[in-house]
Amino acid sequence: MKTYKHLWEQFISPENFELAAKNAIKHKKSKQAVKNFLKNKDAWLHKLRTQVITGNFKTSKYQTFTIYEPKKRVIYKLPLYPDHILQHALINVLGPIWQRGFIQDSYACIPGRGLHRASQRTMDFVRRNKYVLQCDIKKFYPSINHDIMMKIIAHKIHDRRILKVLNEIVRSVGGNTNLPIGNLTSQWMGNVYMNQLDMFIKQELHWADYIRYCDDFCLYSNKKSELKRVAKIIKLFINQNLELVFSKSDIRQTKQGVCFIGYRHFKKFILLKKRTAKKIKTRIKNIFIYNDFCKRTTGQIAAVFGWVKWACCFNYRNSLMMILSKTLTLATNSN
User: Fold this and answer.
1) What's the whole-number mean pLDDT along residues 83-95?
2) Contact, 251 vs 224, CB < 8 A?
3) DSSP 8-state symbol, 256
4) Mean pLDDT over residues 29-38, rounded?
5) CB-CB contact of 181 with 281 (8 Å)
6) DSSP secondary-structure letter at 155?
7) Apex CA 93: angle with CA 115 and CA 86, to 5°?
8) CB neighbours of residue 285 within 10 Å
9) Dihedral sign, Cα of residue 37, residue 12, residue 100, residue 142
10) Bridge-based pairing state of the strands 131-137 and 246-253
11) Predicted model pTM
12) What is the pLDDT of residue 279?
């Protein structure tokens, strides 16, 4: 396995922090925090680089709030400066290294992949297999162990100063577990953590038809007994090596439809899950209540219809158009 020792100069370069700032403020230039940062960008970036170089960088205090869709989760929020910019600077360097180590059928938070490619790959597996083992992890991000996380990272990244910065971020929330949902680094590190399972399933179990999206993953087979056997092995592996536990581990026939990443996959067509359809309608109804009509609003609408277009739901799309039209009319009249 290739290791990486000399990353510090690349990470700390002015060019990397310029790029990090550009990525961090993308699509956010109307926000007041971004406007304040841009007024004196060069000075702020110089100060941040100095803090990092001298070892004085500390993660800012988190603000937290709770969301309840699709399930209750605590979201952690950090300011644009210095935290978002620093995390982008890290991922500029580490992201390509980590991505090269991911299996092809891992799709969450990886540039060039995403939901729709995962859905297409799921259809491949559904069409050639009779059974599916569907699993997900109980309270995944809050359960990630800091010591195990850093050990996994240090197995490939041998730059001591980079590891010190990563260690500060990983442990910034306190306690022995939890990668804060909301951090850019947490998205990538979650994949790095679960990549241990991916490699075990691919290299040790030699399982071909396997797919993962964050902490949701599926194994496919034409033999139900094989899936029962491998479920026990995987449960033991994640317990002993990652200190994680299943919240779900079910074996079903693929002809019943495989619910994964918001869709229900059959051999010949794809439907939206009922919960997904309900959530989309709610989002459309609320979109003008919480936002003025602007580029951000049109982007949200485009994202909704981009999601829907991959499923067989002609009548549902028409109903969304009617809701959107009524909502836009009410919003316009109220103004």
Assistant:
1) 98
2) yes
3) G
4) 90
5) no
6) H
7) 90
8) 14
9) negative
10) antiparallel
11) 0.89
12) 74
Which tokens belong to 256?
């019943």
Name beta bridge partners: 157.
4
Residue of 42, 41, 45 whose CA lies nearest to 17:
45
CA distance 167 to 164: 5
Determine the pLDDT at residue 320: 67
Backbone angles phi, psi at 231, to 5 degrees: -60, -40
- Report the distance separating Cα 245 and Cα 132, nearest Å: 19
Residue 294 has pLDDT above 70, yes or no: no
Backbone angles phi, psi at 254, to 5 degrees: -65, -25
Torsion of CA 97, 103, 105, 111, to 10 degrees: 0
Give 247: exposed, middle or buried? Use CB within 10 Å, 0-12, 13-18, 19+. Answer: middle
Count of C-beta atoms within a 10 Å radius of residue 238: 18
Residue 319, by phi and psi: left (phi above 0), alpha (psi -120 to 50) or beta?
alpha
**141, 181 in Cβ contact below 8 A?**
yes
Quick: pLDDT tens for 193-211: 999 999 999 999 999 999 9
Q: In this structure, what token pair is assigned to residue 15?
A: 């060019």
Q: Quick one: pLDDT at residue 98?
A: 97
CB 131 within 8 A of CB 256: no
Amino acid at 58: K
